[in-house]
Amino acid sequence: MIAWDAEKSLGWDMVDGGQQLVIEVANRLNSADAATCAAVTEAALEALEARLVRQFQAEESFLAAQRSPVLAEHRKQHQALLNTLSALRVALRAGHDVRSRLLMTLVAFLRTHLRSADPTDLAPPEQCARAA
Fold first, then answer.
1. CA–CA distance, 114 with 99 (Å, rounded to integer)
2. 47-51, long-range: CB within 8 Å, 24+ apart, which pairs?
3. What's the total number of domains in the chain?
4. Is residue 5 domain-resident?
5. Which string of DSSP letters, residue by residue, matches 13-60?
6. When comparing pLDDT for 16 and 102, which is higher?
7. pLDDT over 90 (residue 126)
């Protein structure tokens, strides 16, 4: 469904790894069958939340150190995704099938944030690597 594009790399392993995880999870969700859907979705939510919390903290620390004017908006976008992931986890545990919503959320975040805001807002890779 979605392929990692090395040309989209920022050269900052924390951010690039997060983007790769989002792509990998989206592809797993897309190919999950009815028998494995809930388990795949649960594992996806756990992996995303664990990884993205660390990534977002690193990005926000970097932007704060740079006194970036986009920090507040960047943080707002991060928190919105984390809130959505949390809500989806609650719905999944209540027995709802949230795979499609999670997949759409990830694709939207990939397009609007990871491949749009991050490359625009984050400094050149050599500066990002020092901030990690």
1. 20
2. 47/21, 48/21, 48/22, 48/85, 48/106, 49/82, 49/85, 49/86, 49/89, 51/17, 51/18, 51/21
3. 1
4. no
5. HHHHHHHHHHHHHHHHHHH--TTTHHHHHHHHHHHHHHHHHHHHHHHH
6. 102
7. no
